[in-house]
């Protein structure tokens, strides 16, 4: 979504400046083109060189440096036109006040005044300053000017107090940035996604599990929600990123997952079964912790087959689009094609979990899409968020 997008990051001077470095890194990782503009105060916290190194572009600091580093006669207008999205992070009370009142006394505020692109403001300041009526009035003005103001988070502030005023966590900042590039094309669509590995209890402290982190399912849920879908996320892992469009249900075992899925399946349009369901569970779960015996070296746990949730639910299909995953370590395409048929689903997203950068517990995936009567299509290795975006884009264009 961010690939080749022109993002201008305005950094004003507060202790949270260092967090803007993480944002630049994420934007560059997502292949956006990032131009950093720093106010004079911001440069006292972090040098422009650090931002320039991360953004792979010279940082613009004042009208004079911008002019001398550019061929353009009026660089602030050029930068304003170049920008697809302007982010002000951290936004101090000072820069908020200037923008709200049309003051243009440095490159940052001058360019912002000339920029028609969407703007996201991430305020970060001391709680008392945040609550100050003048600051609140200015924030309301930004709202009236159609800027998106992201409320600061609560927690420890630089002054050692606890209160509201911190920048949100990096992942939440990125969610807000992604949102500005997504249209609610899935509004009205109900989606259920399962995520994470199931945990089958042996006793109160031990379980049979697998290496799944839940990242793929969570990415699918987040992107669908950002595109306007209502998402039921049935997950064994809890994820801090939440959208009002996501209803998260926490489960642990395959049986619990199946029960919840059966309940919500009829009211959904799409099922994406990204969970790594344990195929077996212990026949007996001990009520108390199993103690080791000094005379015994070998222990046996009898296992019982779990239901194949996907196979069973697809028998109840009315008009849902059903997607399964296939985690393989060999014969990827034939095994995935077998699962497509046996589980009677509309699509299998197959991945070779033995490959570096693909499958369990990593942030990337290489997916081969298997569909009935179609040739398999392999997508290049990409981040799980990009896989999710590509999948929902495909759904939107070809299925919906
Ligand atoms: N699945 C399921 N219930 C199970 C096992 C798997 O619903 N008991 C789903 C998974 O969520 C996934 C698909 O079936 O969408 C394929 O899962 P995978 O683990 O790749 O294969 P299995 O069906 O378990 O078969 P095998 O372990 O033999 O590869």
TrEMBL record:
> Residue ranges of region Phosphopantothenate--cysteine ligase?
191-400
Q: Name the domain of life this protein comes from.
A: Bacteria
Keyword annotations for this protein, in alphabetical order, are: Decarboxylase, Flavoprotein, FMN, Ligase, Lyase, Magnesium, Metal-binding, Multifunctional enzyme
Identify the residues that the record assigns to the Flavoprotein domain, covering every copy.
5-176
The free-text cofactor remark is: Binds 1 FMN per subunit.
In which residues is CTP bound? Answer: 279, 289, 307-310, 325, 339, 343
Q: In which pathway does it act?
A: Cofactor biosynthesis; coenzyme A biosynthesis; CoA from (R)-pantothenate: step 2/5; Cofactor biosynthesis; coenzyme A biosynthesis; CoA from (R)-pantothenate: step 3/5
Plastid among keywords: no
Gene Ontology MF annotations: phosphopantothenate--cysteine ligase activity; phosphopantothenoylcysteine decarboxylase activity
Documented EC number(s) = 4.1.1.36, 6.3.2.5
Q: Where is the DNA/pantothenate metabolism flavoprotein C-terminal domain?
A: 186-393
InterPro entries attached to this UniProt entry: CoaB-like_sf, CoaBC, DNA/pantothenate-metab_flavo_C, Flavin_trans-like, Flavoprotein
Q: Which Pfam families match?
A: DFP (PF04127), Flavoprotein (PF02441)
Cited HAMAP family: CoaBC
Give the record's family classification. In the C-terminal section; belongs to the PPC synthetase family. In the N-terminal section; belongs to the HFCD (homo-oligomeric flavin containing Cys decarboxylase) superfamily.
What protein is this chain from?
Coenzyme A biosynthesis bifunctional protein CoaBC
Report the source organism.
Companilactobacillus keshanensis
Lineage of the native species?
Bacteria, Bacillati, Bacillota, Bacilli, Lactobacillales
What's the name of its gene? coaBC
């Amino acid at each position: 979504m961010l690939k080749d997008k022109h993002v201008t990051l305005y950094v004003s001077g507060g202790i949270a400046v260092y967090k803007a470095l993480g944002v630049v890194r994420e934007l560059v990782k997502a292949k956006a083109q990032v131009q950093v503009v720093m106010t004079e105060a911001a440069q006292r916290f972090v040098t422009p060189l650090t931002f320039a190194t991360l953004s792979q572009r010279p940082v613009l600091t004042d009208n004079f440096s911008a002019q001398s580093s550019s061929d353009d006669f009026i660089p602030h207008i050029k930068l304003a036109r170049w920008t697809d999205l302007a982010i002000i992070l951290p936004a101090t009370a000072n820069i908020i006040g200037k923008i709200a009142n049309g003051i243009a006394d440095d490159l940052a505020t001058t360019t912002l005044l000339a920029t028609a692109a969407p703007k996201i403001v991430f305020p970060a300041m001391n709680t008392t300053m945040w609550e100050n009526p003048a600051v609140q009035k200015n924030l309301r003005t930004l709202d009236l000017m159609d800027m998106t103001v992201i409320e600061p988070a609560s927690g420890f502030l630089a002054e050692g107090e606890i209160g509201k005023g911190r920048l949100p966590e990096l992942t939440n900042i990125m969610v807000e940035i992604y949102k500005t590039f997504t249209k609610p094309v899935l509004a009205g669509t109900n989606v259920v996604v399962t995520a994470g590995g199931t945990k089958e209890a042996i006793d109160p402290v031990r379980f049979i599990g697998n290496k799944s982190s839940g990242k793929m399912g969570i990415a699918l849920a987040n992107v669908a929600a950002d595109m306007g879908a209502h998402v039921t996320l049935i997950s064994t892992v809890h994820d801090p990123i939440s959208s009002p469009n996501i209803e998260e249900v926490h489960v642990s075992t395959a049986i619990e997952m199946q029960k919840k899925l059966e309940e919500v399946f009829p009211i959904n349009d799409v099922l994406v079964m990204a969970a790594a369901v344990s195929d077996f569970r212990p026949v007996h779960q001990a009520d108390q912790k199993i103690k080791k015996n000094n005379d015994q070296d070998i222990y046996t746990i009898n296992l019982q087959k779990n239901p194949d949730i996907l196979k069973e639910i697809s028998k109840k299909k009315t008009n849902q689009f059903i997607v399964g995953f296939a985690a393989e370590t060999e014969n990827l395409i034939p095994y995935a094609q077998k699962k497509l048929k046996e589980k009677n689903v509309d699509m299998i997203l197959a991945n070779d979990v033995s490959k570096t950068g693909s499958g369990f517990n990593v942030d990337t995936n290489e997916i081969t899409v298997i569909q009935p009567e179609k040739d398999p299509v392999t997508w290049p290795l990409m981040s799980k968020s990009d896989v999710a975006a590509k999948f929902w884009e495909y759904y939107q264009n070809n299925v919906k």
